[in-house]
Design goal:
TRAP dicarboxylate transporter, DctP subunit, three-stranded parallel beta sheet, binds (2S)-2-hydroxybutanedioic acid, TRAP_DctP, 13 helices, signal, transport, about 350 residues, DctP_fam, D-Maltodextrin-Binding Protein, domain 2, 9 strands
C-alpha cells in the first residue's frame, strides 16, 4: 500500500474508532496513574430540570466537594451522550460509570423490574418508596450484578398518566384503535393490548417527534416528563390516571466500582445517599409543579379518573396480572401490594 493509502486507511480507522466510543469514550479505569483524578461520567436521557437531572447535579457537587477535587463527575443530560439502549451498553463497557435508567428499560436483563409497570399496583408514592427500600427492592437492585452492573440507589420519579392526540380517554373503550409509545416491550405492550390499543417501543429521545408526526397517537409518562419534554405541544388530551409508575435505579459497573478503594466507594455511597434524599423530595415537588403548569398552559384537555373509572381500568387490565404475575414473581407482587 502506498503511504497515502496507508494514511487514509489509518484516518478512516481512527474516525471509526472515535464513532464507536462516542457514547462516553475512554474507559475510566484503564490508564489511571496513582494520583490521577477519577472521572465519573454520568449519562441520562431527561432534561436537567427533572428530579433525575437535578439529583445528578447534586451528586456531582457533593462528590467533587467531599473528594476535595480528586473526583470529577461529568453529567450528560438529555441523551446528549447516549440514548436509552446505548447508555446500558456504554455502562457495561465502562465508557460511562453511572446511569439512572427507568427500570422498565432493564426488563431484558431481569423481568422482575416490570413490577413498576403493573397497573395500579402501589397504594401510594410512599408505598413504592418503602418497597424499594425494603428487602425485595434491595434484592431487585442487586439482581444486575451478574451482568456487571451494580445498583446504588432507587430514584423514584412518580405516577404515569396517559396523553394522546385523538380523544379524551375516560374509559378503557376509549383506547381502541389508538397507538401508544412504550419505553420497552413486554408488559407495557400487554397493557395497551388489554385496552384494545397498539404500541411501539421508542427511545425517549424519539418520542416528541413520533407524537408530532403521528407515528404514535399517545404515550404515558410523569407530569414532569410530559412538561419538560413539551408533549403538550403535540398532544391534545391528558388523562390523570396514575395507572403505573416511572422510577429509576442508579447503576454503576462492577469494573469501575472494583477499581476504587474502600474509602472512595464509601464517599460515593455517602454522596449517593444524600442525592437520593434530595431526588425523592424533588420528585413530588416537581411533578406537582409540572401538573399545575400543564393545567395553566391550557394546551391540553385534562380528565381525572374517578374512583369508578379506576375500577373499570383495573378490571380491563386483569389480563396483564394473569400474564405477568409469574414472570415477575408472585412474591414481588404480594410485597408491593402489602407495602404501605
Ligand atoms: C421514558 O423513556 O419515558 C422515561 O424512561 C424517561 C426517563 O428517564 O424518565
Amino acid at each position: 500500500m502506498s503511504k497515502i493509502k496507508t494514511f487514509f486507511a489509518l484516518l478512516v480507522l481512527s474516525v471509526f474508532t472515535l464513532t464507536l466510543v462516542g457514547c462516553g469514550g475512554g474507559d475510566g479505569t484503564k490508564t489511571k496513574a496513582k494520583d490521577e483524578k477519577i472521572i465519573i461520567k454520568f449519562s441520562h436521557v431527561v432534561a436537567e430540570s427533572t428530579p433525575k437531572g437535578q439529583a445528578a447535579l447534586k451528586f456531582k457537587q457533593l462528590v467533587e466537594e467531599k473528594s476535595g477535587g480528586k473526583m470529577e463527575v461529568q453529567v450528560f443530560p438529555s441523551s446528549q451522550l447516549c440514548g436509552d439502549k446505548e447508555e446500558l451498553e456504554a455502562l457495561q463497557a465502562n465508557n460511562v460509570q453511572l446511569i439512572a435508567p427507568s427500570v422498565t428499560k432493564l426488563v431484558g436483563f431481569v423481568p422482575a423490574f416490570q413490577l413498576v409497570d403493573m397497573p395500579f399496583l402501589f397504594a401510594s408514592d410512599q408505598a413504592a418508596y418503602n418497597f424499594y427500600d425494603g428487602p425485595f427492592g434491595q434484592k431487585l437492585m442487586r439482581s444486575l450484578e451478574p451482568k456487571g452492573m451494580l445498583g446504588l440507589a432507587w430514584w423514584p420519579n412518580g405516577a404515569k398518566h396517559f396523553t394522546n392526540s385523538k380523544r379524551p380517554l375516560k374509559t378503557p373503550e376509549d383506547f381502541k384503535g389508538l397507538k401508544f409509545r412504550t419505553q420497552s416491550g413486554g408488559l407495557l405492550d400487554a397493557q395497551f393490548k388489554a385496552l384494545g390499543a397498539g404500541s411501539q417501543t421508542l427511545a425517549f429521545a424519539e418520542v416528541y417527534q413520533a407524537l408530532q408526526n403521528g407515528t404514535v397517537d399517545g404515550q404515558e409518562n410523569t407530569f414532569n416528563n410530559i412538561d419538560t419534554q413539551k408533549y403538550v405541544e403535540v398532544q391534545k388530551y391528558l388523562t390523570v390516571s396514575s395507572h403505573g409508575r416511572l422510577d429509576y435505579v442508579v447503576l454503576t459497573n462492577t469494573k469501575f466500582w472494583n477499581s476504587l478503594t474502600p474509602e472512595q466507594q464509601q464517599l460515593i455511597s455517602d454522596c449517593m445517599k444524600e442525592a437520593t434524599a434530595y431526588e425523592r423530595q424533588l420528585a413530588d415537588e416537581l411533578n406537582n409543579k409540572s401538573k399545575e403548569k400543564i393545567k395553566a398552559s391550557g394546551k391540553v384537555e385534562i380528565y381525572e379518573l374517578t374512583e369508578s373509572d379506576r375500577a373499570a381500568f383495573i378490571k380491563a387490565l386483569e389480563p396483564v396480572y394473569k400474564e405477568y404475575t409469574d414472570k415477575i414473581g408472585k412474591e414481588y407482587i404480594d410485597a408491593a401490594r402489602a407495602s404501605k
